[in-house]
Amino acid sequence: MRLGAHVTVVSLEQKAYARALFGSSCFQRDLTKFNICEKAVEGQEYVFNLVGIKGSVELGERVRQLFLVHLRYQSNMLEASFRAGVSRYLFVSSICAYPPSTLHREDNVWNGLPKQNDRYAGIAKRIGELEAETYLHEYNWKAVRIVRPSNVYGPFDDFNPATAQVIPALIRRVLDGERPMCIWGDGSVIRDFIFVQDVVDGLLLAMENAPPCFPINLGSGVPMTIKELAEIIVAESGVDTMIEWDPSKPSGDPIRLLSMERAEATIGFRPKFTLREGIRQTIQWYIQNREFAHERKNLLSA
């Protein structure tokens, strides 16, 4: 909107929450239905397919919904956009599409299967990327751009304890007064976190400058342990609490870090926010918006 675009959003979010997030041109619809996708893309020049199911480690057990819902969203939105003749289409893939590695480079995505806890969602995202390639090869439809974000966080995140990822989950637990705070694992796993504003900038750069169907990572490229993350959240919250670790519980892959070389070389993307700066803004937003910060719609929490 600040770029002069008229933005229309179709989301599962409750109306009051969605309008606070997106403004008045927002419609609550289910994009697993093809006719809804056709209506959503009608008259649009650019389509950003940001659909995905975020969640914590234990949500990986909801495999049918993770897999089938992703496939329906992806196929319906892609076909509807192709038929509508949109000039640019952004497909947001995921870091979970990668096989285990110490550093995820774009061309290595097919070097093995994703880890077991990410297998269904990760393969669904791979299928979405391949679907886009079929339209390029068969119809020479050059609209599709592909990005693979790392762990995205920031204002308007999902703070529901049943579905939230690690950053919003820890922020809520700290500010809700959990004493002590017990965290799964031993804190040694490494993640790549990226603030939502940096992601938005990266999406816009990719939409304008990326080659068709040329996957590009969007992350910080900075390794961060969960222990370091938890300490930053506690420090920035201003709350005095102890952290305890439970190594008997699962904590996911030992390391997930994105190579950012292609993003910088191809679309000129460099993240601007440090993790501490992003955490600070996210905590401030949550404190000011607790009354509806827990209303995020998630298919796996239904």
Task: Characterize the structure shown.
- This protein is α/β, with parallel strands linked by helices and 302 residues long.
- It has a single domain (9-301), classed as Rossmann fold.
- It contains nine helices and twelve strands.
- The strands form five sheets. It has a four-stranded parallel sheet, with helices on both faces. A two-stranded parallel sheet has the order 1-2.
- It is globular, with a radius of gyration of 19 Å.
The total domain count is: 1
| Tally of individual helices | 9
The biggest sheet amounts to: 4 strands, parallel
Overall outline: globular
Number of strands: 12
Distance between the termini: 31 Å
The proportion of residues in beta strands is 5-15%
Low-confidence segments: none
**N-to-C SSE string, H for helix and E for strand:** EHEHEHEHEEHEEEHEEHEHH
What is the gyration radius calculated from CA atoms?
A: 19 Å
In CATH terms, the superfamily is: NAD(P)-binding Rossmann-like Domain
Strand order of the largest sheet: 3-4-5-10
CATH architecture: 3-Layer(aba) Sandwich
Q: Kindly provide the name of the CATH class.
A: Alpha Beta
The CATH topology assignment is Rossmann fold
